[in-house]
Amino acid sequence: MTEKNFVPRGQLSPDESGRVSWTAPSNIALVKYWGKKGEQLPANASLSFTLSHCKTETSLEFEPLRSKNTDIDFDIFLDGENIVDFRPKIQSFLLKIYKYFPVLPHYRYTIRTSNTFPHSSGIASSASGMAALAACFTEMEALLSGGMEADFFMKKASFLARLGSGSASRSIQGSIMEWGEHHFIPGSSDLYGIPFPFDLHPVFHTYRNTILLLETGVKQVSSSRGHELMKGHPLAGPRYEIAGNHIEKLCGVFKTGDLDLFVEIVEHEALALHAMMMTSRPSYILMKPATLNVIEEIRSFRNQSGIPVCFTLDAGANVHVLYPKEYEPGIMKFIQDQLVAYCQNGHYLCDRIGEGIQRV
Ligand code: PMV
Fold first, then answer.
1. Atom of ligand 1 nearest to the CA of 36
2. Are 200 and 175 in contact (CB under 8 A)?
3. The model's pTM
4. pLDDT for the residue 120
5. Of 69, 81, 120, 196, which is the most exposed, with the fewest CB atoms less than 10 Å away?
């Protein structure tokens, strides 16, 4: 498929008003997307667990305008409050999707959104937020065009979500998503994410992710800036090659359930992401002392207990602890005894692998 497939072919009838509402979860990358090209296309393929509890719920009300607007007319409410800070991000998203949704300026929009996780948690809401909004616009298109085939709905939602935030393309379906063209993954595309197309060992059906909130402030360097700094980064080439190899290896792991290899690859990916930041020009460090302490604790607990628990990191200081469901009681005790002390105000979030967007 190409971009052209996402431009509606038939006429959309711009005279109906309506309301659609979707939830979308966050996701945690196992193989990280870091570096982009073209119009929000990934420099390397990535693979993620779709989450379940950390999600955004968004409703979109649309009302036809008497004459087409030059600007896109919208209001955005977060938890019932009209939030001006969000406007530029939404405005830029709307301008990007315009090409693929030509009736956009014929309506006025009211967007109401809320997250299940606290704003101050340092958990990025861009993946779940953009995915929920993209699902709303996709349903709006489906309504105006008299229907849309289910598989295409998912692809279009992921395609639009990607234009808002790359990683959002992986928040549409579950339970494992792949985004970015990769020779080993049939149907993979830079334009949208797809559900992992191979057999999945049962251990991965119920995987757990506990997010330790170590640093809840605003990041010093945004992800957009981080992606930009990959251009001309001397280690970019090897990094993209390693990410590609990791995707291939993880396909095997997902089949066999080889958790030792899973742990090795996932932790390598997390540290490679931060290594890119630490060796870019200018360089920067998003990990905090608590991040390193927690990593040490997890590794020593794993060595002593033999439990295949591992960590991964986002573009921030918080640590995602990943483990199979059967070890939950032991890991929760370990978190309480050893790791909560590093969390800001003792806060952490418990999540698990999940299924993607849902109509409300
Ligand atoms: O989707 P963005 O542009 O916010 O980039 C996110 C990048 C990472 O979260 C660090 C990695 C990933 O693949 O999700």
1. 3
2. yes
3. 0.96
4. 61
5. 81
